[in-house]
Write a structure and sequence with these properties.
This protein has 61 residues and is α+β, with helices and mostly antiparallel strands. Helix content is 33%, strand content 30%. The chain has 2 helices and 4 strands; from the N terminus they run E-E-E-E-H-H. It has a 4-stranded antiparallel beta sheet. Helix 1 crosses helix 2. It is globular.
């Protein structure tokens, strides 16, 4: 039995790709260097809410 494996999750808005989150925890944004999400999480003192807000800001900038 074949198992589908996806290495990226696309973040879309109105049919436009805002970014891709890779299963290794890397955020890929158009025209930017990859962002390791663990470093964002650690910079936010391992608090998920400010981490999520920072990631949202990165995706919508």
């Amino acid at each position: 039995q074949a198992i589908s494996r996806y290495d990226f999750w696309g973040m879309l808005r109105d049919g436009r790709c805002l970014g891709l989150i890779q299963t290794d925890g890397t955020l890929h944004l158009p025209g930017h260097d990859p962002v390791p999400l663990m470093s964002v999480y650690n910079a936010n003192k391992r608090d998920i809410l400010p981490t999520a807000m920072e990631i949202r800001d990165l995706l919508t900038a």
